Amino acid sequence: MRGFDASEFQSRTERAQQRMAQAGLSALLLTTEPEIRYFTGYLTRFWESPTRPWYLIVPATGKPIAVIPSIGAALMATTWIEDIRTWSAPDLTDDGVSLLADALCEACPMDAVIGLPDGHETHVRMPLANLHRLQDRLGARRLGGDDGILRALRMVKSTDEITKIETACAIGGRAFHRVPEIAGEGVALDEVFRRFQMLCLEEGADWVPYLAGGAEQGGYADVISPASPSALVPGDVLMLDTGLVWDGYFCDYDRNWSVGQAAPQVRDAHATLVEASDAAFEIARPGATAADLFNVMNAILSRNSEDTGAGRLGHGLGMSLTEWPSLIPTDHTVLEPGMVLTLEPGIAVGDKILVHEENIVITEGAPRFISARTGPELPQI
Amino acid sequence: MRGFDASEFQSRTERAQQRMAQAGLSALLLTTEPEIRYFTGYLTRFWESPTRPWYLIVPATGKPIAVIPSIGAALMATTWIEDIRTWSAPDLTDDGVSLLADALCEACPMDAVIGLPDGHETHVRMPLANLHRLQDRLGARRLGGDDGILRALRMVKSTDEITKIETACAIGGRAFHRVPEIAGEGVALDEVFRRFQMLCLEEGADWVPYLAGGAEQGGYADVISPASPSALVPGDVLMLDTGLVWDGYFCDYDRNWSVGQAAPQVRDAHATLVEASDAAFEIARPGATAADLFNVMNAILSRNSEDTGAGRLGHGLGMSLTEWPSLIPTDHTVLEPGMVLTLEPGIAVGDKILVHEENIVITEGAPRFISARTGPELPQI
């Protein structure tokens, strides 16, 4: 099923409002795509255009209030939101600031603190000059942080959210399964990237916001560079890492293939990566922390080397490609049922690296793979 | 050719520095993908991840300084940038703020004003709490606006930039030409969207960040909604509007088709749209303003109705899907050679709308279509 029942948005809103009361916040002011979609279901690719700001107010009680460009009114009216205030954007003189200030003043008492998400992995998506103008218009009402409310809420997914992420993972799995159709000796890497995105779409992705990867001899130097036009040659390790979207939710996992026979150290590295993600999977239960998952993986990855230079070894996943928490030594977030995580160990092989990634769900008991669990053997194409 | 010669980045930097001197700015601080890519050529899809902030300092003289997560160091080192400072992100205690503050203090005198893009169509992509921490670390140095420098520079494209946009337009044109292969009576609209993205990739797009459109009887209600699973039926007008990317540059234009025979008022509406974009094309020369293009289109569009509810009738285009200027009555930006614009007239037909869009380049003399100019006749599938 696409979308959510209105009860999902009502529940999200009520949970936010409970936390707002505890934090002394009279309203939340939200400006980014996942923040606004979280409370409304407003799903559109139109966010690709940086021209227009969009605002959502979560008041202390009642439904959220949308303050948006008129071009979005028809689509917002199809959601559970009732109070939709619009202006004709872009307006070079007053691009929604007065309308937003009026709505906030109406929703909040004179001494209100209004929370904007301001912590890690957030930004405020509006012109900075307009943020200052807004503060001037609010009088004694003060713009502050959101006390981590969005982070806390979004980090734990509902059953319906998990189903959407699983659907995205299944689409990715079918596309990965078909990689031998499109990749092999002599095919240029940029052509592999193009054809793989086509496979994702053919298998049911709505769109493919993210594809990264690499292919070099015995590993790859880097996992964020654009695809080169070099043809695959025997001894290359091809890696594809996709964040495709179904109904607004991402999968984010990768797969590796050896072009022809792999060297023993490459096969060993792949087996070690899978050993690491399996070890993290084993302990990924309520009560364990993000740091615990890092540590168990890092112990395996660093068994044969002093410093693997390991950065983050996984992260949250959902409406965004990457979300809180981070699997790093200093993130002591305690796992809870409903969290969706990537396990993403990386290992050095000479001057190259190999990275492996799976997606899992935390449950009351043992976790569950939602990407098709990989075995230790590096497949050959 | 992919990428740019280093001379392009040098020229962009020098032009920025001239404007910075005039505006009394000691440095620019840039945080978003197109801003950082404009001065570096740093091209990656990794920006899809909201986790990590990225910073670029354009000092008063010399090359820009990158202050970035270490995961980006290898790719940034392939650009013309030499001073690359990294930290292991995410760092939950100090996520690059001290490193950035130190770099700014080194690059700027004690009484400096440091310019962040803060105007229309911008935002600051870093956590708001970290922006406040940064200001605290800068002492008397003050964070201010960029005086519109990024807007002024990016709005006028170089020859090499225009070539990339033309390449994207040509790919889009080949994909649009093949729409009859994938769309027709009985095909679901969401399947048309999927197949069209596949065509864009097959014809050479690197990725397809944007696809919008619609298909309803005699027009469409809205142009930003996700595709419905409804099958096309005779009398539907199908519209596809794509922002595909080649080497980091967008095209942004649309095409309409009638499923079976179109009603006379629909055919007339399409012809009127093309008449409007042709009329704007005729006057799109240096010295005319963005508002002039709006006015000439709006006069034609409103010939047979009092209020067409016309919003923006076009905009700039380049590294982003939409850029300055806006073709609205209040945008008096004077056209210059090198500007790339969309002409995007819309018209109401009963309770539906039709939208048409072309991409053009402003030159010293007559402008040039870079999308394949459409004739007045609405094609039928």
List the topology elements.
The structure is a homodimer of 381-residue chains.
Chain A: H1 6-23, E1 27-30, H2 33-40, E2 55-59, E3 65-69, H3 73-76, E4 83-87, H4 97-107, E5 113-116, H5 128-137, E6 142-145, H6 149-155, H7 159-177, H8 179-182, H9 189-202, E7 207-217, E8 236-246, E9 249-250, E10 253-258, H10 264-283, H11 290-301, E11 314-316, E12 323-326, E13 340-343, E14 346-349, E15 352-355, E16 358-361, E17 368-369
Features:
Creatine Amidinohydrolase, Chain A, domain 1, 11 helices, homodimer, 5-stranded antiparallel sheet, about 375 residues, alpha+beta
Describe the structure.
Two copies of one chain form a homodimer. Chain A contains eleven helices and 17 strands. By secondary structure, chain A is α+β, with helices and mostly antiparallel strands. Chain A folds into two domains: 149 residues, Creatinase/prolidase N-terminal domain (Creatine Amidinohydrolase, Chain A, domain 1), CATH 3.40.350.10; 211 residues, Alpha-Beta Complex (Creatine Amidinohydrolase), CATH 3.90.230. In chain A, the strands form four sheets. The first copy, chain A, has a six-stranded mixed sheet. A five-stranded antiparallel sheet of chain A has the order 12-11-13-16-17. In chain A, strands 7, 8, 9 and 10 form a four-stranded antiparallel sheet that branches. In chain A, helix 7 packs across helix 9. Chains A and B meet through helix 9 and strand 7 of A and helix 9 and strand 7 of B. Chains A, B: InterPro entries: Creatin/AminoP/Spt16_N, Creatinase/aminopeptidase-like, Creatinase_N, Pept_M24, Peptidase_M24B. Chains A, B: This is Putative peptidase. Chains A, B: GO terms for molecular function: hydrolase activity. Chains A, B: Pfam families: Creatinase_N (PF01321), Peptidase_M24 (PF00557).
